[in-house]
Amino acid sequence: MAKVSASVTLPGSLYQKNGRWWWKVRLPGETKTKARALKPEGSRYAATDRQEAEEVAREMWRLAIEAELEAKLGTQQQDKAEHSIVKIRAKDAEEIAKVKAECEKKLKSCEHALARAEEKAKTQAEARLRAEVALKAQAEEMEEFYTTEITKVKETIGRAKKEFHEKEKTYSKAMTAAEEKVRMEAEARAQAEAKLKAIEEQKAIAEAQARDEAEAKLNEVLGDTEKTGTCECCDRNDVPESDLSKIDSGQILCSDCLKMLRG
To answer: Which residues pair with 37 in a beta bridge?
Structure first.
């Protein structure tokens, strides 16, 4: 239970609660009575000494009066400010119209720039598609050529083997001549296989060169287009990716906004 004190010279009433002083009062500028702890400056708890509590209460009363006077003064100054605003509103309207016209002009300029950028991106995309189609056609043509060459070599090897077997049967009795023939056929087969291997190596080299040339063409086509991103501070969506930075909060900012952030 709160222990109510005797009457005091201050308005409202001082009372103790759990050994500490409280003040129930309606301060100047307030509409309702409110109980508040009388805490000395720098203290987390209400005062236990009555005299100290009264000093705190008087200081609270003084500050409330000053705040009420400042509020009234602020109202008067606001009325004067509103009167001044009415006088300059016509002039401001003219300035606003001028700024609006300039903004509309800049907006149209940005729209034209955006249209040009979109057209450029479309042209580059078409060029990239044409390069990819040309690369695919070249690869198919090279594949067909080397497939034909390999088939011819295999047919040659097949005929050589067939001839070898036929001659082996015919000259089976003449071992010396047959052995010489075998040696010659083996050399022919080795040469044919070496030729096949050489063709396959040439094919691999040609394909690698074609890929390198195609990648160089693609890089040349794509090199004209620098990727862009959006600044999450000023909302610009045409900022080059090289001009964007990620800050500690995770936001992505352009160099201008980053400079403003760092002061």
So the answer is: 22
Q: Is residue 63 part of a domain?
A: yes
Within a domain: residue 53?
yes
The dihedrals phi and psi of 31, each to the nearest 5 degrees, come to -105, -15
Which residues face 244 on adjacent strands?
254
Q: Can you give the C-alpha Rg of the chain in angstroms?
A: 48
**Contacts (Cβ under 8 Å, ≥6 apart) of 112:** none
Residue 171 has pLDDT above 70, yes or no: no
Q: Is the pLDDT of residue 117 over 80?
A: no
Domain count, the chain: 1
The reply to whether 120 falls in a domain is no
Instruction: Give pTM, 2 decimals.
Output: 0.30
d(CA 59, CA 56): 5
Closest CA to 68 of 31, 25, 22, 23: 31
Q: How far apart are CA 5 and CA 37, in angstroms?
A: 14
Confidence label for 5 from pLDDT (cuts 50, 70 and 90): very low
Answer whether 117's CB lies under 8 Å from 225's CB.
Answer: no
Q: Is residue 72 part of a domain?
A: yes
Domain that holds residue 22: 3-79
Residue type, 8: V
